[in-house]
Amino acid sequence: AVICLSLYSFIFHHVKPLQSSLKPLVEGYQSGMRTGDKIFAMFCLLGGTISLPYMMGKPLNMIEEQCQASVSQMVELNAKEQAAALKMFWQLCLNLMGLSNNTVELSGKAMDEKELVFTGAVNMYFVLVKNIAFNLFGQYESVASLVIKKEAQQHLVVKGGSYTALMYTFHRSLSLYAMAQKNRNKKKKYMTKANRLHKELAASLKKGNPNALHYVSFLNAERNALKQKKNREETVEQEYKNAITVSLRGGYVHDAALARERYAQFLLNEVGDIEEAKYQIEAAIDCYKGWGAMGKVQHLRNQQERILAESQTK
Length: 314
Fold this sequence. Notes:
- The protein is globular.
- The chain has 15 helices and no strands.
- Helix 3 (38-56) packs parallel to helix 5 (80-97) and helix 5 runs parallel beside helix 6.
- It is mostly helical and 314 residues long.
- 50% of the residues are buried.
- InterPro entries: Hybrid_Histidine_Kinase.
- Keywords: Coiled coil.
């Protein structure tokens, strides 16, 4: 289990598609249970059936069912950190699926975030999952409230970190770019931080990481949307379209949906193209539906109700 976890959570994701790690991690779980290495077996179970499938954009109902099936075993084995991480992803799924009264707060059927005991590993997963929730529900500024413990930082760095570091680095950079768009007074500060994280992913891509391409493509569009260059609209639009295409080809339906959503905001705020923005919003809704995120679908419809209604009456 230790070897499987080391290879498929910390090494191979730099050079192989994420899909290739699913089966080995499940096998690592099975091996660990046979040999009594139950703590690392639970980390393999968490990665192979929960966090990695989420990152890959697998259907939320499938992940939610796996959470229900696995949580009791983790609790019985006293694998507290793994159980806490699983519950975070479980509650995130419930929020996105519309099976919770909350959006960004990780409280409901699966857990109550106020009751978490923050070890380094728990803090790492909390920062990751909360950042994802903030981005998906458009509360970018709230990311500033997330505090990363020193012992968690090493696991959230692309170079030397696990595959979850890719997901975290992307979402953190996206948050900062979005904050730069909203807060012009702190634009330079936010862009500097976002660019640093963006460069980490770009460097990983340059070294052959196949799992960084759609993240880098997405962030390229976000970065250039903030530049005050003449005739930049056409370039930015093409970059968003490229990010959407690359995400869909890789099966990252959730990231494609978010890219469409961000593209629509650019069209509304910078270009003034309501019809194309409407198309992108509706396409994002279709992607979220396909993913099983009906709670997010309703949230987006409510958020963009005026735009959708206006364009329908023309």
